[in-house]
Amino acid sequence: MKDWLPRLVARAPFTVHTKLIGAFFAIVALLIIFGVVVIQVLGGINRRSEDLGSLRRKVAAFRQLQHDTTAQLYSVSTALLSPEERMLENALRQLNQFRYDLDRLQFVTRNEAELFNKIREEHEQLIQLITTVLELTREQAFTRAKELRLTKMAPLADSLERLTNEMVNRAEADMEAKIDESNQAYMTSRWVVIGFAIGSIGLAILLGYAVSTSLMGPVMLMDNQLRQIASGDFSKRVDVPNRDELGTLADNLNRMNDELRGLYQQIETASRHKSDFLASMSHELRTPLNAIIGYSEMLAEEAEERGQKSFIPDLQKIRASGKHLLALINDILDLSKIEAGKIELSPETFNITGLIEEVASMVQPLIEKNSNVLTINHPDDLGSMYADITKVRQILFNLLSNACKFTELGTITLDAAREKTEGFERLSLSVRDTGIGMTDEQIARMFQPFSQADIQTARKYGGTGLGLAITKKFCEIMGGEIRVASEFGRGTIFTVKLPLSASNSKADTTSLTRTGDPSKSA
Amino acid sequence: MRNNKSDGWSRREFIGGLALTGTAAILGLQPEPGMAAVEPPPETTRLRIRKGDPACWAPIYVAEPLLREEGFTDIQYVSGLTADEAKLSREGAIDLSPSFSAVAMFNLEQQQPPLKIISGLHVGCYALVGSERIHSVRDLKGKTVWAGAFKNGGPHIFFSTIVAYVGLDPRTDIQYSWVNKDEAMRLFREGKIDAFISFPPWPHELIEQGIGHLLIDTNIDKPWSQYFCCTVSGQSYFIKKNPIATKRALRAILKANDIVARNPELATRIVIEKKVRNESEYKSVLRALKDIPYSKWRAYNPEDTVRFYALRMRDIGMIESNPQQFINQHTDWRFMNELKKEFGITW
Fold first, then answer.
1. Which of A158, A161, A172 sits opposite B311 (nearest CB)?
2. Is there a single domain that holds both residue A198 and residue A304?
3. What single DSSP character describes residue B82?
4. Domains in chain A: how many in total?
5. CA dihedral in degrees (A49, A51, A56, A60; nearest 10)?
6. Of A52, A103, A111, A358, which sits 20 to 30 A from A504 (CA to CA)?
7. What are the tens digits of pLDDT across the range B181-210?
8. Lowest-pLDDT range of A499-513, B55-69, B160-174
9. pLDDT on residue A170
10. Per-residue confidence (pLDDT) for residue A459, from 0 to 100
11. Are residues A259 and A299 in the same domain?
12. Do A313 and A354 fall within a single domain?
């Protein structure tokens, strides 16, 4: 039942709107039926209460008749014992009470003509007898009156009493039957109401479950599919059985997935072609460049030896331009390798302090070029790390050379330390300069390839704009991160954190922050 | 030795006369219209009637010659207490059974034996005797009462309806002394029991001895005097298979009521000869049979008796069915309704 019902609702050829309205109306219909049942039950209770009231009135009327019969017999007996005119008149007047009782009886037993006629017949006889007895008494025929009272009147009164008793018993028995009926009806009604309540709740839950599952199921499937697409996985298709808007949406999603897969494959092919082209072009360019650089060096040396010093500056320009071009080509090659996923790490254990000193030595000419001062701070026990030393060296070199480039007559500080975060040990390298700093806009596009702060900066300071992009990619490939904090005109701080035991994990953890004082934020 | 001839009739003469002239003629009874002679003979000539202790069931013994007149040649009185009635009926050992109304109803409801109440038998018989300390039924609250030797027997059920009628709870308001009848009479005489209820002849024996006084006499006191005290039940299979025999037997038993009313001495003799009661109890039995208004049976509606007791017993939880359900399930008035016309009954 868990699966077939939502599937059935899903496959129903109606719109989502119709299904929701249908479920709503089903629940409303149940509530209406429930209300009708309750009203019927209450109606039954009310009807039975009225029946019981009617029976009580009947019993009271019978009892009244019985009481008045006894009172009449007493009056007659008194009149016989004391035959005064007042007594006789009193007894005769009481006969009116009988007629009143009979009227009342006729009213309460209006649906029981046979019963009423029987009682009336006996009462008529009794009234006749009482009248005769009282007349005989008035005529002082006491013996005849007493005889008539004993032989006729008393047995008739007895019979009448039994008859009224029987009627009372019948009415009481009817009341008992009604009470039983009422109890039975209550029990039945209780179970009907409970049944309806449980049924309604169950059906509402079932409908709610079926409708929501038939709607939410496909939505979740499509959400999952969209996530897959977003992550570049176009291999799966979403299977939604709905014949409603969701079914159509799922079909469109599958169609979109197919189209995106085709496009992605095209892009992938194009990208591969680009990388291949760049790799081969770089290789083809490096060969003649190496020759140009080599020959320009040789020519410069020969010019010096032959004393033709006027050629030397031009040859040095040729060599510097060649080297610049070679560095540019190397960077482009690195970047294309990274984008093509062809970069491989070659981890090894090396001494961190040694690496720092080596890089410091490498950047020393750059430091001196802009009359800067390099300060290196690190604890004595920096120890070693297991990582691709070439990449770590390039990261540190890029950061320090970058700082040298944008700082004049300033200070460049390198802080290195081991730190432990969430159980992992990492190497923290922080390069702080007192250079030109960056604006927020510049920071935002800083790590994009071929993107320097602006064109003027690029012209003034040179460079390809690939260094930081490559640095960031290397950090990520080694499972580390790079952060930057900068204030325009005050300086910049780059902080790199690398695992002491490098892996191929790839994490996009770069974050950018802007601080008021780069020295404080370091 | 008591003279068998009382009020001019000995049992021998009664039976002999019956053979010659017919019971009705002997007793001076008016012939009933639609007499047995025009009916087909009974389907069976054997009739087995339960015989019990109560002297008030005299009509079923007095009815023997009338039953012979109705065509029964093999009439058996099967001894059995009311408590055994259900068992005997299930075994098919009895065809008709007299019972106290309330007890019969209690057993029918509780044990569901194959029996149906088919008629009333007679009016009034039980009597409740109180000690000098007791002036009304309500005075019995918290007092010790003898209402039979065991719970849910005839006296106990009947007593329960009587006390419940005045608002006492027979289960909690009364203390019962469950001893045998002789022991109970002794305890009552000694003042260790406050009330004593029983069918004839024992309450009358106590009164004759000047011990205690009548609190309730169902012969006289309303509402009990307005209903049959005892009823006749028929074994379900028997009455279904033998409707003519049932009707003929019932006619004889009901007529016997009139004989008992007219000649209680003769009825007493028969009760003693049938060893229902001892010779020594002659006086008390005779008094009981004289007191019981056997002649009134025509005026009483047995269905209303069942209805009345059903109401009373339901009040105290002795039966669960409502009166009409009980009547529908446990009574069969077909025979009584046919005899009504014959006997000129108008209810």
1. A172
2. no
3. G
4. 3
5. 150
6. A358
7. 889 999 999 989 999 998 877 887 888 888
8. A499-513
9. 84
10. 62
11. yes
12. no
**Cα-to-chain-centroid distance, residue B142:** 30
User: Which value does ipTM take for this structure?
Assistant: 0.75
Three-class SS state of A423: coil
Instruction: Tell if the CB–CB gap between A169 and B308 is shorter than 8 Å.
Output: yes
Which stretch of A173-187, A422-436, B330-344 has the lowest confidence by average pLDDT?
A173-187
Q: What does the block give as tokens for A443?
A: 């920071």
Q: Which structural domain, as residue segments, surrounds residue A34?
A: 4-214
Q: Which residues of A24-46 are buried (b: 16+ CB within 10 A; e: fewer)?
A: eebeeebeeebeebeeebeebee
In a domain, A205, yes or no: yes
User: For all residues of chain B together, what is the average pLDDT?
Assistant: 87
Is residue A229 one of the residues assigned to a domain? Answer: no
Task: Tell me whether residue A223 is in a domain.
Answer: no
**How many interface pairs between A and B have CB atoms less than 8 angstroms apart?**
47
User: CATH assignment of B11-124+229-343, given 3.40.190.10, 3.60.60.10, 3.40.50.300, 2.160.10.10?
Assistant: 3.40.190.10
B339 against B345, higher pLDDT: B339
- Residue that wins the pLDDT comparison between A86 and B99: B99
Report the relative pairing of strands A491-499 and A481-487 from DSSP bridges. Answer: antiparallel
Please tell me which of the candidates B300, B301, B314 has its beta carbon nearest to residue A176. B314
> Same structural domain for residues A516 and A451?
yes
For residue A272, what is the domain's CATH number? 1.10.287
User: What are the phi and psi torsion angles at B263 (to 5°)?
Assistant: -135, 70
The full DSSP string for B243-301 is HHHHHHHHHHHHHHHHHHHH-HHHHHHHHHHTTSS-GGGHHHHHHHHHHS-GGGGGG--
- Identify the three-state secondary structure at position B4: coil
Residues of A in contact with B347 (CB under 8 A): 162-163, 166
Q: Please answer whether residues A203 and A33 qualify as being in contact, where contact means their C-beta atoms are separated by less than 8 angstroms.
A: no
Q: Is residue A177 part of a domain?
A: yes
Task: Give the lowest-confidence range in A175-184, A229-238, A326-335, B312-321.
Answer: A326-335
Q: pLDDT-based confidence at A105, cuts 50/70/90? A: confident
A395: number of Cβ within 10 Å: 26
Whichever domain contains A509, its CATH number is 3.30.565.10
Q: What are the chain A neighbours of B306 within 8 Å (beta carbons)? A: none
Residues of each domain in chain B carrying CATH 3.40.190.10? 11-124+229-343, 127-217
The one-letter amino acid code at A61 reads A
Half-sphere exposure of B197 (CA within 13 A, CB side): 27
Closest Cβ–Cβ partner in A158, A169, A180 for B311? A169
Q: Are A450 and A464 in contact (CB under 8 A)?
A: yes
Last residue of a domain, one of A292, A312, A338: A338
* Angle at the Cα of A98 from the Cα atoms of A95 and A103, rounded to 5 degrees: 140
pLDDT exceeds 90 at position B328: yes
Q: Do A173 and B323 touch (CB under 8 A)?
A: yes
Q: What is the pLDDT of residue A166?
A: 83
Residue A24, token pair as written in the block: 């709503």
Q: What six digits make up the tokens of A436?
A: 């030109």
Indicate the range of A128-132, A144-148, A442-446, A513-517 predicted with least confidence.
A513-517
Smallest Cβ–Cβ distance between A173 and the set B223, B226, B322 belongs to B322
Q: Give the pLDDT confidence score for residue A504 in this predicted structure.
A: 41
Same domain assignment for residues A254 and A373 = no
Backbone angles phi, psi at B118, to 5 degrees: -115, -15
A383 with A329, same domain: the answer is: no
Domain termination residue (choose one: A338, A372, A399):
A338
> Is there a contact between A403 and A433 (Cβ–Cβ < 8 Å)?
yes
Give the CATH number of domain B127-217; options: 3.30.360.10, 3.40.190.10, 3.50.50.60, 1.20.1600.10. Answer: 3.40.190.10
The amino acid that residue A142 corresponds to is F
Give yes or no: residues A164 and A275 share one domain.
no
Q: Which of B101, B105, B219, B304 to mutate to test the interface with A (most CBs of A within 10 A)?
A: B304
Both A348 and A326 in one domain: the answer is: no
| CA-based nearest residue to A285, from A319, A316, A318, A322 | A322
